[in-house]
């Protein structure tokens, strides 16, 4: 919009105008009014920083007052401004910074205006720039209380938006423009009285001939009691030459105007200003037995009593509960419960007179839907993330719930219902799915209660508690992780990092990553599921070179952003590192990790970067591995670089989070012992046990990690004996060296890690499988079983995978017979070839997979179909029965699908009965219908059925002769009834 309005001031539009005409145009009344209005508008904002302008044409030329104005409007400070611009180049630089900021940061498109126009005092284009600012900051951007939120895109223009708001406040006056409709002063009187009821209650009686007097009375009242400065004067408003832009600039102040205490209000009753809204007054969507809710707002109507009458279709009164909310908009919450179907009338009177649109006609349909089947999701009902004065939304899913209206009531932190009026509409493009889009704008910070109703009942989890936050502070945000380290990341690495925003308010987190040659790497922050205020990010660099990572919070860079990361080439290495010291530790406590070279030759090196220097000790174990210990002295994130020949190995640097020092525990006093920690003697597939004694170490969490030679985790079962000791066991699954690492409060205990050599193997080839469940004769829906015999196979666990003919998993029940055999039970639900896969000690046995033929246990020849053996008349309802009694249980319900002569598929809804299933088919076309009938996944005999659909009787084509003249008493008259063209009955 800013672009089109700015073009109104196109420099070329008067180039062909004669000099005398141009001079007259420069002094035109509308232009003088506009210049004065725009000057006053600018000064209203500049006075907050003790600045002012006297001459709009020249006072912006050095850029300083323009900078001050934009800082006030945007709430942001310019860092680089020449405060003493003595030269033209300095002035141009100041103005250029402003124009670039408006386009880049504020999203305002500036057309046909550059810095030289402002510096050279081009009044026409200066007016164009000011109008662009007014449009954006005073009309487009603010959220107005009482305004219905519209779609975020494709909504009304700023002019139409302001006009809509004015029209909603003064519906009794046909205001269609922002110039001559305001000349007689009555419109401004009506608007002032609507915003501050009682300030101008007699505006309807004002004489249009006293235009200036009318305007002055209303504008003076607005300035004194609504804080609306007179950006235009009464004689300007009543001037026939007043331009729309000046009027819009003045009127845009009213949506945010608040009535001051002590105003001399004069009451006047006006029922037409009563507003009534809500699902209970909608023409459709209400159901029998479901509470129908609506709200009546009397704020602008004066003092009077509210009377509500609800009449059912028989004209009988039904009870309507009315609750005075005692809020500032003087609203009443109303609810009635329809008892019968048909058209209801809701009559609303205020002060004894019916309000606008009363009586409301409400069509009530059958039984209400089921609110328990409705769900809602979206940012607008999350506990955090909603920002004050910024539109948010959520969706309500009603597809499976039946009939009913969606209603939303939002309570602000003070419990008021009238401050937030949500917009509720079917989601565009999702109407058939029953999805509603709810949008609203919270006006203040604090806990809000979002109550979602369907068919008058709260849906599950409603009300939703929503914490509305304030504006954001990007400088309180910071980033951690390997992905933002200056060195170590390599091509094709997954480079993760985290963005920490806790305490910084609510704002959008954005990440932009620019690689070598300007390539952009996609990176979408994901909200952490485990850490509050943390966003998880990662990217995969595709080229070697420098990457720039820009991280913004609310469009501002966070601390230390942008980050520069030098990405190295892809590298492979046999060197591996592991241990708790690579991920965390405690300040002033040793942090350990292990490096294994696995035969790779090279000079190992270590470098640790973080909040403090850290001493490093390295112990060579003599087996190609080394235990490394470092001593952090300050808390925070440390980058641990493990180098080979002065280059980071893959996955280096490792990121360790060091927590503050504590005296609560001492990991050096923890001991561990037992056969499960011995260098030898542990066998594969057998429990290896040990004990941890922490009785002298103080309280801290115990963590035990067991890994095999490929660094795959082995589960460790830990039992807390509640006396400071723990019994632990693990079962190794392969013959290889295992490493057991034990930490207490994140710090390794003495002698950790323990290196354990595991021996012995199992023999899956000796496993036997037999029994009726893997033989002939298996029937659907009959439980069967088979035996897995592992007596001669050695130690190991079994695993069974069973799939049906469609490849779907079939549940099995495994029973350990405690003698080396296992009974496997299952119940097939559909016929076909099943596949049984048997695994032992993580290996599939030689005879696996085993194929099992499952036969159906039902006799489809006994299924009967009734209702398709005779022709059907078009539009006649025909009952169809599928009789399955005595047939047996199928793998699904019966299904009837009709194909019309025009090849349309129509599924007949079926209801289950003691005899089987029954449904109704109503054909809408004449001709042959094909009807497919199935029971579960099987087609019943004789399906598909063919049914003739014949024409029905058309009474409009029946004619009668002989009755067109009176018949005398006793006279014999022949009467003919002609049915030739009416069809057969």
TrEMBL record:
Domain Calponin-homology (CH): 32-138, 156-259
InterPro entries: Actinin_actin-bd_CS, CH_dom, CH_dom_sf, Filamin, Filamin/ABP280_repeat-like, Filamin/ABP280_rpt, Ig-like_fold, Ig_E-set
GO molecular function (one): actin filament binding
UniProt xrefs under Gene3D superfamilies: Calponin-like domain, Immunoglobulins
GO biological process, one term: actin cytoskeleton organization
Keyword flag 4Fe-4S: no
Ranges for the Filamin repeats: 266-364, 366-468, 469-567, 567-658, 662-758, 759-854, 855-949
Alphabetical keyword list: Actin-binding, Repeat
One Pfam family cited in the UniProt record for this chain: Filamin
Family stated for the protein in its record: Belongs to the filamin family.
Protein name in the entry: Filamin-like protein-3
């Amino acid at each position: 919009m800013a672009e089109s309005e700015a073009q109104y001031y196109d420099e070329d539009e008067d180039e062909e105008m004669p000099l005398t005409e141009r001079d007259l145009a420069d002094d035109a009344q509308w232009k003088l009014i506009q210049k004065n209005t725009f000057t006053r508008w600018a000064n209203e904002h500049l006075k907050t920083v003790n600045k002012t302008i006297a001459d709009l044409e020249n006072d912006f030329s050095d850029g300083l007052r323009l900078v001050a104005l934009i800082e006030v409007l945007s709430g942001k400070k310019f860092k680089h401004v020449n405060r003493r611009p003595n030269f033209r180049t300095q002035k141009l630089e100041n103005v250029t910074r402003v124009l670039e900021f408006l386009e880049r940061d504020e999203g305002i498109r500036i057309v046909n205006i550059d810095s030289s126009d402002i510096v050279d005092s081009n009044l026409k284009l200066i007016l164009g720039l000011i109008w662009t600012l007014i449009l954006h900051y005073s009309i487009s951007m603010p959220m107005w209380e009482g305004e219905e939120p519209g779609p975020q895109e494709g909504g009304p223009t700023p002019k139409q938006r302001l006009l809509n708001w004015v029209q909603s406040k003064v519906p009794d006056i046909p205001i269609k423009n922002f110039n001559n409709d305001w000349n007689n002063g009555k419109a401004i009187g009506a608007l002032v009285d609507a915003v501050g009821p009682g300030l101008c209650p007699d505006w309807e009686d004002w004489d249009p001939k006293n235009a200036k007097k009318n305007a002055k009375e209303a504008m003076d009242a607005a300035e004194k009691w609504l804080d609306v400065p007179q950006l235009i004067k009464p004689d300007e408003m009543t001037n026939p030459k007043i331009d729309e832009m000046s009027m819009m600039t003045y009127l845009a102040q009213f949506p945010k105007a608040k009535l001051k205490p002590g105003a001399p209000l004069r009451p006047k009753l006006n029922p037409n200003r009563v507003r009534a809204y809500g699902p209970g007054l909608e023409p459709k969507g209400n159901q029998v037995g479901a509470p129908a809710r609506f709200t009546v707002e009397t704020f602008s109507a004066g003092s009077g009593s509210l009377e509500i009458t609800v009449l059912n279709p028989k004209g009988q009164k039904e009870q309507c509960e009315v609750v005075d909310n005692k809020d500032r908009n003087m609203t009443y919450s109303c609810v009635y419960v329809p008892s019968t179907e048909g058209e209801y009338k809701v009559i609303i009177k205020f002060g004894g007179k019916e309000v606008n649109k009363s009586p409301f006609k409400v069509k009530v349909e059958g039984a209400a839907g089921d609110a328990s089947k409705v769900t809602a999701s979206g940012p607008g009902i999350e506990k955090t993330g909603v920002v004050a004065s910024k539109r948010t939304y959520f969706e309500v899913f009603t597809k499976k719930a039946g009939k009913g209206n969606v209603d939303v009531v939002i309570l602000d932190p003070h419990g008021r219902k009238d401050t937030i009026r949500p917009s509720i509409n079917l989601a565009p493009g999702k109407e058939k799915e029953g999805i509603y889009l709810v949008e609203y704008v919270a006006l203040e910070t604090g806990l809000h209660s979002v109550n979602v109703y369907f068919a008058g009942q709260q849906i599950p989890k409603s009300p939703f508690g929503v914490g509305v936050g304030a504006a954001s502070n990007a400088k309180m945000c910071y980033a951690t992780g390997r992905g933002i380290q200056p060195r170590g990341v390599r091509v094709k690495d997954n480079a993760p990092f985290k963005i920490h925003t806790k305490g910084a308010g609510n704002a959008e987190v954005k990440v932009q990553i620019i690689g070598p040659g300007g390539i952009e790497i996609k990176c979408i922050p994901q909200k952490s599921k485990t850490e509050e205020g943390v966003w998880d990010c990662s990217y995969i660099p595709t080229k070697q070179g420098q990457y720039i990572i820009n991280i913004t919070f609310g469009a501002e860079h966070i601390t230390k952003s942008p980050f520069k990361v030098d990405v190295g080439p892809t590298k492979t290495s046999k060197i591996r590192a592991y241990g708790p010291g690579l991920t965390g530790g405690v300040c002033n406590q040793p942090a350990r990790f292990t490096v294994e070279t696995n035969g790779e030759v090279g000079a190992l090196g270590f470098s640790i970067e973080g909040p403090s220097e850290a001493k490093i000790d390295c112990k060579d174990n003599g087996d190609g591995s080394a235990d490394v210990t470092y001593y952090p002295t300050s808390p925070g994130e440390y980058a641990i670089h493990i180098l080979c020949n002065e280059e980071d190995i893959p996955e280096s640097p490792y990121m360790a989070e060091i927590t503050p020092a504590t005296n609560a525990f001492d990991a050096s006093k923890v001991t561990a012992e037992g056969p499960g920690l011995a260098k030898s003697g542990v066998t594969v597939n057998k429990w290896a046990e040990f004990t941890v004694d922490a009785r002298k170490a103080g309280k801290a969490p115990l963590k035990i990690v067991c890994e095999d030679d490929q660094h795959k985790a082995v589960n460790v079962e830990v039992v807390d004996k509640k006396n400071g000791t723990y019994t632990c066991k693990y079962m190794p699954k392969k013959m290889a060296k295992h490493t057991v690492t034990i930490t207490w409060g994140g710090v390794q205990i003495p002698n950790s890690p323990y290196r354990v050599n595991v021996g012995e193997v199992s023999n899956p080839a000796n496993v036997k499988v037999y029994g009726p469940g893997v033989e002939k004769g298996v029937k659907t829906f009959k439980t069967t079983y088979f035996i897995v015999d592992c007596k001669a196979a050695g130690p190991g666990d079994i695993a069974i995978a069973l799939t049906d003919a469609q490849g779907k998993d079939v549940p099995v029940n495994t029973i350990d017979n405690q003698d080396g055999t296992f009974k496997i039970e299952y119940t097939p639900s559909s016929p076909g070839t099943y596949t049984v896969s048997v695994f032992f000690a993580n290996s599939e046995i030689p005879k696996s997979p085993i194929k099992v033929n499952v036969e159906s246990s039902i006799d489809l020849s006994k299924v009967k179909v009734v209702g398709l053996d005779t022709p059907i008349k078009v539009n006649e309802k025909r009952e169809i029965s599928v009789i399955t009694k005595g047939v047996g249980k199928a793998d699904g319900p019966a299904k009837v699908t009709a194909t019309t002569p025009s090849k349309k598929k129509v599924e007949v809804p079926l209801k289950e009965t003691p005899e089987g299933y029954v449904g109704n088919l109503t054909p809408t076309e004449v001709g042959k219908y094909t009807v497919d009938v199935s029971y579960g996944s099987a087609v019943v005999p004789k399906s598909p059925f063919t049914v003739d659909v014949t024409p029905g009787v058309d009474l409009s084509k029946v004619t009668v002769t002989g009755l067109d003249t009176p018949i005398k008493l006793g006279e014999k008259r022949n009467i003919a009834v002609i049915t030739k063209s009416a069809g057969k009955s």
